């Protein structure tokens, strides 16, 4: 594994830990899910929110723990909540 791969893995892990915390599930639980994320971008090219859509491969027992998850297995997360802390 190259140093670049290691940095990318660390960033991915940090992101998924933050995402799990926001969703009210554990890091281990988020790893068992499959999801797609799309950004809601305004006319000013600013990302205002992220739309997370969990696929059918995600365990229902984990999805049931996510407050605010829609019937379509979607949840909207404000971009500021996932912003990198500097």
Helical residues, percent:
25-40%
Overall pLDDT metric? 90
- Based on CA atoms alone, the radius of gyration comes out at 14 Å
* Discrete helix count: 4
Low-confidence stretches: none
Global shape: globular
Total number of strands: 3
- What is the element string, with H for helices and E for strands? HHEEHEH
How far apart, in Å, are the first and last alpha carbons? 26 Å
The order of strands across the largest sheet is: 1-2-3
The major beta sheet can be summarized as:
3 strands, antiparallel
Task: Write down the domain tally.
Answer: 1
Oligomer state equals single chain
Strand content: 15-25%
Estimated structural class = alpha+beta
Strand-helix topology:
Elements lengths: L2 H21 L3 H5 L3 E7 L5 E8 L5 H4 L10 E5 H4 L4
Antiparallel strand pairs: 1-2, 2-3
Structure characterization notes:
The protein contains four helices and three strands. It has helices at 3-23, 27-31, 60-63, 79-82; strands at 35-41, 47-54, 74-78. A three-stranded antiparallel sheet has the order 1-2-3. The longest helix has 21 residues, at 3-23.
Question: Quick gist of this model?
Answer:
The chain is of the alpha+beta class. The chain has 4 helices and 3 strands.
Question: Key terms for this structure?
Answer:
single chain, 86 residues, alpha+beta, three-stranded antiparallel beta sheet, 4 helices, 40% helix, 23% strand
């Amino acid at each position: 594994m190259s140093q670049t791969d290691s940095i990318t893995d660390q960033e991915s892990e940090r992101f998924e830990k933050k995402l799990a915390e926001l969703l009210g599930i554990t890091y281990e639980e988020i790893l068992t899910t499959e999801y797609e994320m799309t950004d809601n971008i305004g006319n000013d090219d600013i990302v205002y929110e992220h739309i997370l859509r969990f696929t059918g491969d995600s365990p229902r027992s984990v999805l049931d723990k996510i407050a605010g998850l829609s019937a379509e297995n979607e949840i909207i997360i404000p971009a500021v909540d996932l912003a990198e802390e500097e």
